[in-house]
Amino acid sequence: FKGGDTCEYLLSSGRFLGEKVWQPHSCMMHKYKNSEAKQCLIDKHIVFIGDSRIRQLFYSFIKLINPQVREEGNKHGNIPFEDKSASIKVDFLWHPEVNGSMRQRIKSWTEGSVAKPHIIVAGAATWSIKIHNGSNEALTQYKINITSIAPLLEKLAKSSDVYWVLQDPVYEDMLSESRKMITNEKIDAYNEAAVRILNSSSRNSKAKVKMFSVSKLIAQETIMKSADGLHLPESSRDTNAMILMNVYCNKIMKPIDGSCCQPQPPLTLIQKLAFCFFTLSIIGYLIINFIHRNNFRKNKSCTDLESGEEKKPAISTPNVSTLEMLLHSFCKLGLIMTYFYLCDRANLFMKENKFYTHSSFFIPIIYILVLGVFYTENTKETKVLNREQTDEWKGWMQLVILIYHISGASTFLPVYMHIRVLVAAYLFQTGYGHFSYFWIKGDFAVYRVCQVLFRLNFLVVVLCIVMDRPYQFYYFVPLVTVWFMIIYATLAVWPQIVQKKANGNCLWHFGLLLKLICLLTCIYFLSYSQGAFEKVFSFWPLSKCFELNGNVYEWWFRWKLDRYVVFHGMLFAFIYLALQKRQMISEGKGDPLFSSRVSNVLLFISIVSFLTYSVWASSCKNKTECNELHPSVSVVQILAFILIRNIPGYARSVYSSFFAWFGKISLELFICQYHIWLAADTKGILVLIPGYPMFNVLVSTFIFVCVAHEISQITNDLAQVVVPKDNSALLKRLLCVAGFFSGLLLFSATQEQSRH
Predict the structure, then answer these.
(1) Whether residue 709 lies in the annotated active site
(2) The dihedral sign for the CA sequence 29, 32, 37, 40
(3) Could you tell me which residue ranges the Cas1p 10 TM acyl transferase domain spans (predicted)?
């Protein structure tokens, strides 16, 4: 289903999500702040010409520029408005009928002596119906008059944006006696005449009078709340004004969450090169595959004509070569990236705004949790945070985060605070997992570092190129990448303290604790010194990775929000492994982690702590204040969950294979959702099948999960080739990677210059 002209959809169709949120058909509407409205309309002259309904629209429009404006002045006269700070001039001209007076005013703008307005919003009809008591003669005269002004409006449309507002329906039961002749039947007749006559001489021309018919749909839902049955309630007028702002400003301001009326962005040089690379990979793979098929046919078993027996081929099917595997991976990746681009960069598929309701968040949560229980299996080992358990943990957290994003639950503060804990728990696992590996294995080789960095960053680097987004845009990957490097540096720097060395001398444990204290001090200093943090990450080329919208503030905010939780993960791993080494915990199948009394006390404390945090998070009133406390208190719920999950022997020996399956591709799911499940860089929802919301979610989710799983496989395959174990081969690969990123920085700089 092609998205088509989203401007036309914005002006003519849509539906309400809930009571007040308007959803245009196929595209997303941005909610403009007054500062954005001023920036868009700077040095512009806008004119509203018509009756009292147009006056209402005029007031709602100027309130987007200056919310302090009051509806004062002569209701049946001209009303000027000017914002001197942005040189914006907005006028309302009282012309309640389409007659010679209105024609003369419009004609004056077509002549050279008077400056043309940049935007003209016109409309009138109800006064003609009222004054002439709904007579047919009045309708005939309306047709004659609108025919006379149509060429003038069409001429103005060549240089200005001209909108004709069709008449809204009325609520006939509420109309006063003096307005009883204004019926919906009459209004429909006047609207039909306006639609038929306007643009009749310029049907094939790009310059047209735009028909503002969406107001009719809005009025059908809200006119019952009108004070007099004729004029729209304030919320509906505000919606119309916001639509008008989106129609004009989206192509200028290009808001991420305003896809209506935005043209498709042009391909950048880097995107074109990526397209060529993937095309060549697909062609190369097809050629190699064709050659292999021919060789297979030649070597296929054949019948010996003399003996009548089947001969076996002399040559067996060769193993897949490295080149073929590379081409195959890039071939699949190229097709997947094409789908990414079509979903979120080309104006091919529709996008819609999110709308939060409690049911849209909690019902899917309950459903997946129940589903996860049905896939309970025994774990291979019963250690604390064993591999199956951590995969399960990642899996259910990722599914909850996905539902949180698609339902728009970030507007509900208690849910937001609990999701923040889930993000912190991911980082906690980063600290726990990497610390455990380095502490136990003592493997600080470059190969290990490169493997981890490749698996974390491969997809994001490809998306930065294909989707033309900065690295910091996918904030979670830079976050875990930097924390991995911090963990590595902390443990790898002299003196390297690992478990094997510490077992020989207990003093090494104090040495490691000293390292962790130094790390905590650095974290504390950077979190309270924004200037120092920004200086560290503002050096080129680090700035190219961590800047967003020209500064590193967003990166500082994301880092600061969970600044202690990785340290908590490392400390937990150290304490747990020390207790395990001294056999102070019991990890046998079915055994509680500690003695019965200690286990019961810890379980009670954990449950109380878990619930206490939830009560605190649910009572949050201010997001800023709660975010300030979050880094220090999020570890309470994380540790409580770990103890509840691991102290009972039975709980430790089972896991949900359903959640664990998703946990294995959790990183790919988190990143892929940006463009092929959500839309407009996570601000909206991708619509593959319009008109059927539930079916659309099912189809887009199925594709999204399959793509994430396939990308995980591709990443694993490429990691074996790009990051070899042999040191000399690895050094060559690193030089190639350095060359690749140098070229990328060069092309990026060239693009920036051309944009400016």
Answers:
(1) no
(2) negative
(3) 253-734
Look up residue 139 and give its DSSP letter. H
Give the pair of three-digit tokens for residue 441: 């294995």
Say if residue 724 is preceded by a cis peptide, omega within 30 of 0: no
CATH number of 6-253: 3.40.50.1110
Instruction: Give dist(CA 342, CA 339) in Å, integer.
Output: 5
Q: What are phi and psi of 83, to 5 degrees?
A: -110, 105
d(CA 752, CA 345): 19
* Active-site pick, 25, 45, 95, 231: 231
Residue from 200, 228, 443, 595 carrying the catalytic annotation: 228
As to burial, measured by CB atoms within 10 angstroms (0-12 exposed, 13-18 middle, 19+ buried), residue 111 is exposed
In one letter, which amino acid is 728?
Answer: S
Residue 211 has what DSSP assignment?
A: E
Least confident of 346-350, 406-410, 596-600, 660-664: 346-350
Answer yes or no: is pLDDT of 519 > 50.
yes
Alpha-carbon dihedral angle through residues 621, 622, 627, 632, given to the nearest 10 degrees: -50
Is the backbone of residue 705 left (phi > 0), alpha (psi -120 to 50) or beta? alpha
Element (H, E) at 45: strand 45-50
* Burial (Cβ within 10 Å: 0-12, 13-18, ≥19) of residue 531: exposed
For residue 541, whether the previous peptide bond is cis, meaning omega lies within 30 degrees of 0, is yes
Boundaries of every domain in the chain: 6-253, 349-370+383-723, 726-755
**DSSP class of residue 539?**
S
Q: What is the C-alpha to C-alpha distance for residues 526 and 320, in angstroms, rounded to an integer?
A: 50
**pLDDT of 676-693, one tens digit each?**
999 988 999 999 998 888
The continuous run of DSSP H or E covering 736 comes out as helix 727-755
- How open is the CA angle 550-554-557, to the nearest 5 degrees? 150
Give pLDDT tens digits for 163-196.
999 999 999 999 999 999 999 999 999 999 999 9
Give, rounded to a whole angstrom, the gap between the first and last alpha carbons of the chain: 36
**Model pLDDT, residue 102:** 95
CA distance 55 to 77: 10
Provide the pLDDT for residue 284.
93
Q: What is the DSSP string of 547-612?
A: -BTTBSHHHHHHHHHTTTHHHHHHHHHHHHHHHHHTT-S--STT--SS-HHHHHHHHHHHHHHHHH
Place of tokens 């009756």: 51
Structural tokens at position 537: 């990450």
The residue annotated as part of the active site, out of 13, 52, 235, 614, is: 52
What three-state secondary structure class fits 480? helix
SS3 label, residue 61: helix
Report the alpha-carbon distance of residue 132 to residue 181 in Å, rounded: 9
Secondary structure of the chain: what % helix, strand, coil (to 5)? 65, 10, 30
Dump pLDDT digits (tens) for 622-676.
899 999 999 999 999 999 999 999 999 999 999 999 999 999 999 999 999 999 9
Per-residue pLDDT at 596 exceeds 80: yes
If you count them, how many residues does the chain have?
Answer: 756
Cβ neighbours of residue 502 closer than 8 Å, sequence gap 6 or more: 508, 509, 512
